[in-house]
Amino acid sequence: MFDPDRFVDEAVKDLKEQIKGKALIACSGGVDSTVCAVLANRALGENLYALHVNTGLLRKGESEEVKKLFEQLGIKLYYLDESGRFFEALKGVVDPEEKRKIIGELFIRIFEEFAERHGIEYLIQGTIAPDWIESGDELRETIKSHHNVGGLPENIKLKIVEPLRDLYKDEVRKVAQYLNLPISERQPFPGPGFAIRVVGEVTREKVEIVREACSIVEEEIEKASESGKMERPWQYFAVLIPVKTVGVHGDKRAYGYTIAIRAIDSVDAMSGSFSRVPYDVLDRIATRISNEMGDKVTRVVYDITNKPPATIEWE
Ligand code: XMP
Q1: Pairing state between β 159-161 and 122-124
Q2: Quick one: DSSP state of residue 194?
Q3: pTM (2 decimals)?
Q4: Residue 133: CB within 6 Å of ligand 1?
């Protein structure tokens, strides 16, 4: 049986032993990096530098929530808006693995620059077991290179420390609960963010569309789950498909993008089945997306593929 109390003691002790000097941790506000930040804060105190990088690929209001969370935790948070650099680096790139590599690489370069400014030698990462299992080791074929593992460039100047490497998600949640972290039980969000929820080339405009659509999907599914209409899925979000189709907006012809709704039930993200979201909830989501997105989106579709054969994300 997993014992969070023992895990925390040992992790703090290990961090003290491994890290002689200053360490950087990148904070997304998700459960993994937040648990890591709290453990590292206990182990290192002032020698921990918590950093939040706004990539421009995050969910609506996300950076503000991260700032608030760290204020509550009493951990000083550094903030950098680097969205311009991310969009520039992704210009013209369509391949999903290429996107992950570019984003992973840019993250690391930003961390290195920050580390150099502050005399930091170590980088703490919230990698958990499924991340590296799916990123492939000698025995397993690579499915996707999750950015916090496979997307890392080989010539990193920082020493990597991964305190949650052997844990599964439910165990990380137990640690978070044990530590009393004020994180609302957010659904998982991939490191490369909306870059892999815009199929094909990523632009600021497309990210703004999918971010807005995603927030509508989240709001409506959460409302329906809270009122008992449906079980809350493991993950639920929007994907922008760069296929333009004809529609009618007001009394004018419109020519906009396609939004796919993805909602999936799973236990550990390794497999899953598409959620049986009630038709009236889907109807409401589609209507809201059409009304609120103007002529930018002319079609909304629902993804009915299980994992396998599909993956949860579209890229
Ligand atoms: P897939 O799409 O592989 O997703 O079925 C399984 C889980 O992993 C998340 N995911 C990622 N997380 N970087 C991440 O940090 C990534 O590149 C990435 N790709 C997928 C996905 O959201 C799901 O929870």
Answers
A1: parallel
A2: G
A3: 0.89
A4: no
- Taking the centre of ligand 1 as the mean of its atom positions, its distance from the CA of residue 314, in whole angstroms, is 10
Round the average pLDDT of the chain to a whole number and report it. Answer: 93
Ligand 1 atom nearest the C-alpha of 313 is 2
For 287, other C-beta atoms within 10 Å of its C-beta total 13
Can you read off the two tokens belonging to residue 307?
């994992």
The one-character DSSP state at 152 is S
The long-range contacts involving 135-140, CB below 8 angstroms and separated by at least 24 positions, are: none
| More confident position, 144 or 198 | 198
Cα 298 to its chain centre, rounded Å, is 27
Count other Cβ atoms within 10 Å, centred on residue 294.
13
Could you give the angle at the alpha carbon of 30 between the alpha carbons of 39 and 53, nearest 5°? 95
- Mutation test residue for ligand 1: of 141, 146, 148, 170, the one with most atoms within 8 Å of CB: 146
